[in-house]
Amino acid sequence: MRGAGRGHLLIVSCVLSAGLLAAVSPAAEAAPGPRYSPGSPGAGDPYFPDMGNGGYDVGHYDIRLAFDPGTGAIDATTTILATATQNLSRFDLDFQGPLTISKLSVNGLDATFTRSGAQELVITPPYGLRKGSSFVVSVSYAGVPQKIDDPALGLSGWVATKDGAIALNQPIGAATYYPVNDTPDDKATYTQTITVPAGLTVLANGEPGPTTTRDHRSTFRWFMNRPMASELSMLAIGAYNVTRGVTPGGLPDITAIGQAIDTKPGQGQVFNRTTAQIVQWESSVYGPYPFDSTGGIIADVGVGYALETQSRPVYDQRTSDVDGDLLAHELGHQWFGDSLTPVHWSDIWLNEGFATYSEWLYQEKVNNIPVQQTFAKAYADEEDWSGEVADPGRDRIFDDLVYNRGAMTLQALRMQIGDRAFFRVLSEWPTAHRYGTVSTQQFIRFVERLTHRDLGAFFRTWLYQPGKPAL
Ligand code: TRP
Ligand code: ZN
After folding, report:
1. Which residues have CB atoms below 5 A from the ion given as ligand 2?
2. Lower CB count within 10 Å: N or C terminus of the chain?
3. What is the pLDDT of residues 121-146, one digit of tens each?
4. For ligand 1, which residues put their CB under 6 angstroms from it?
């Protein structure tokens, strides 16, 4: 209200003073009011040009969602707290699929909106938003969310399951069920308040709040109080057996297994305890664990991969085996990928290389298989040496190139700089960029500064040149 009034006054006074000044001195210009322009419809990632948006920075998402397993429909209101980073006449959120918006407001006032292309929700508030000012966007919507099936990147987004639904959002799924600035470069805190028929369980990132049940419906609350990239947000609704534990370091450890697949006696306890032990061990190698709780979910999702969703990874039962290696991988991501997140998807080896290296370290720890031996085998067995690790191309972000050659790059670096410097890198790199975003160039500079060495040629060979590097 106040802003709109001021806008009117400004227009009136500009018109008046322009006339007056023109009469007195033709050269003088009217003092221009602030200029407002639309925010960019993309965040500038070459692999995913439409993902994310420009002109504002999200601080918090409040997702309130009711799910009906009978119809598969959701009924939701997502409220976003953001700050304008330019004078905004208009801005986009990412939102895709068949969900219907019933109401959209900015700072409590109805705003005009259109849907454009596959995933742009274009919002025009009733008045311009000044750079630096915070604003609240509230979107109410309903419908049956549709997962994404990308030929190269597989299934993601809101996935219906036999007993509920699971949302896995890497890299482009979040917008299938909530309006979002879907770029790793705009981390935010989250509140998820999810209502389901009584009897079902809801798990999500972070810490649980109180669950309330009335009229045969239960409402679960989950809080992620550390910055989180949208691709790492997660929601799991279904029939779960939940195990609560605590790591040796005192961190809450909440794990769950889908009831239909929880057939081995004691499996829940083993999963919970192994998670706690690995988090504890990885903290001793990578530095303090970045979040306020840990855990994991084993479910029959049907996507065929596990995902490092923040604080609580999801393991599809169809991933070959939910074993210690996989746990070490997804939990290793909590430092590499989740707390530190590449700004650009081309740099995803900074996640997958380190997560794969976590498996190699784990094999050394539990089975006495030296990392160097795992490296030698990977180096000898690898057949495809095409592609650049630090620029694999959109369709190859989940390739062996990124995972295996990424981990090989780290072991090759260890041989270059020695164990002492290498293990300093493993803990100081995530500590220096905790909760931030990173790039390959930053990593190279970081290692060079720490070692006082020029490693340009080394990293060029391993990260940017196709072909098998000589040892
Ligand atoms: N990033 C996941 C991990 O390594 C794996 C993953 C996510 C994936 N989406 C994928 C693998 C699509 C293959 C295809 O933990
Ligand atoms: Zn991974």
Report:
1. 352, 355
2. C
3. 999 999 999 999 999 999 999 999 99
4. 153-154, 170, 305-308, 329-330, 352, 355, 398
